[in-house]
């Protein structure tokens, strides 16, 4: 029984570490996208999401520190910028990344019975939902010619 718990606990730690690294990579990527943005909507969406991802990275680092007793390597290791072929391609990648993050956090939620951990993860999950919705709208505004005309403004 205790072995089983140990395996599950180890799996949870592993997933949390992967999520932490993803958050940090995403924050760097969104800084790149913010700098590429030429509209207020673009700058605003990516700047705000970047701030959230940094908050998520901090929350996950604190959680992992409490669970393992040490600062995880994933909190400190350098992360590379993302290769972005075009602004709209970048928004598409952001949408895919947010969808993947939702799946990732849903899986983590299923791996723990701890209310405390679930609350932390659920809060992050909710932010990713907001990011996903914002980037989908941003894609329509920035990357679909005639979007405004079609929506009858
Ligand atoms: Fe995040
Ligand atoms: Fe996000």
TrEMBL record:
<protein>
    <recommendedName>
        <fullName>Rubrerythrin diiron-binding domain-containing protein</fullName>
    </recommendedName>
</protein>
<dbReference type="Pfam" id="PF02915">
    <property type="entry name" value="Rubrerythrin"/>
</dbReference>
<feature type="domain" description="Rubrerythrin diiron-binding">
    <location>
        <begin position="45"/>
        <end position="139"/>
    </location>
</feature>
<dbReference type="InterPro" id="IPR003251">
    <property type="entry name" value="Rr_diiron-bd_dom"/>
</dbReference>
<dbReference type="InterPro" id="IPR012347">
    <property type="entry name" value="Ferritin-like"/>
</dbReference>
<dbReference type="GO" id="GO:0016491">
    <property type="term" value="F:oxidoreductase activity"/>
</dbReference>
<dbReference type="GO" id="GO:0046872">
    <property type="term" value="F:metal ion binding"/>
</dbReference>
<dbReference type="InterPro" id="IPR009078">
    <property type="entry name" value="Ferritin-like_SF"/>
</dbReference>
């Amino acid at each position: 029984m205790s072995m089983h718990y140990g395996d599950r606990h180890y799996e949870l730690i592993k997933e949390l570490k992967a999520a932490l690294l993803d958050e940090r990579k995403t924050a760097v990527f969104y800084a790149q996208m913010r700098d590429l943005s030429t509209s207020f909507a673009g700058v605003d969406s990516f700047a705000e999401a970047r701030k959230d991802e940094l908050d998520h990275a901090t929350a996950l680092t604190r959680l992992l520190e409490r669970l393992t007793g040490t600062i995880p390597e994933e909190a400190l290791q350098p992360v590379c910028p993302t290769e972005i072929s075009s602004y709209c391609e970048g928004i598409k990648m952001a949408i895919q990344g947010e969808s993947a993050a939702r799946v990732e956090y849903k899986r983590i939620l299923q791996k723990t019975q701890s209310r405390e951990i679930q609350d932390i993860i659920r809060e992050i999950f909710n932010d990713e939902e907001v990011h996903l919705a914002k980037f989908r709208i941003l894609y329509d505004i920035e990357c679909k010619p005639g979007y405004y005309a079609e929506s009858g403004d």
